[in-house]
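On clarity, I found the account of how folds are encoded harder to follow than it need be. Since the whole study asks how a given chain folds, the encoding of that fold should be made plain. The format is easy to grasp once an entry is in front of the reader. For illustration, here is how one protein appears when written out as sequence plus structure tokens.
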Amino acid sequence: MNLFVTGATGFVGNALLARFSREPVTVTAAVLEGEDASHLPEAVRRAVVPPLRPDCDYAGALAGAEVVIHLAARVHIMRDTAADPLEEFRKVNLHGTERLARQAAAAGVRRFVYVSTVKVLGEESPTPYRAEDPYRPLDPYGVSKAESEVALKRVAEETGLEVVILRPPLVYGPGVKANFLALMKAVQRGVPLPLASLSNRRSLVYVGNLADALAACALHPAAAGETFLVSDGEAVSTADLVRRMAAALDRRAHLLPVPEALLRQVGRLLGRSAAVDRVAGSLQIDSSKITRILGWQPPFTLQQGLAATAEWLKKQF
């Protein structure tokens, strides 16, 4: 089987290529001109492509592909300086993705696996999100991803392309960046964190589990036309996550008992409400659908994922 992977040089892409090294498949990685692809496995083919935009042309690169796994995206940005962030997200995540899917269908691609996000359903929920829940995105990134899902379903209806959508929560693992990395580095340094009173529940997904789920979505016949949520199968409070990070790093967690209401108030005063909401709020995922239909189970536990991330962190910093 011939696979074509966008975003192959990134965080999730690296894990996905490692996962496919165990399968009898041929993988072509979409690589931007000038992008460093020296770390890609030798067995992976390279196809130089333009940036994903409404007018991009991937037709030549897609020749011979049977399955496309689309990881490339304009990702969530904490302090977006674009004049119109939603339009910038749409250029890549909506219009670029739809164009890629239509070119894939025209090239004879059978299946299109799309990495979306749980943010299409919202940011916080007292009960676990399910794949069937209605769209309720709250930021430009989530809106663009929800719109792209709708566009892909339309392409599927019009062309017969098998579209499979996978919605992860926060993804962590070796190579992680942004808030998760900042939190883990703070734990590594022994920084006191005012999180002991939090009893929220958050689902995460280890990058190795996400890669394995993507492989199932690409290869399993029953995945065609489905939308799945994926996680490690365990939801934890932020306080418990810090304790587990500390254990993985051979450190002691320094947690201070600050009331959640006070944390949120300080966040508002500092203009960091969104960041505090992500730390203090609950966002759980019901990933039973992918287990029921594909028989998929996460091959790694949360603690195994944190241990692998900790080993990487120790070598990097």
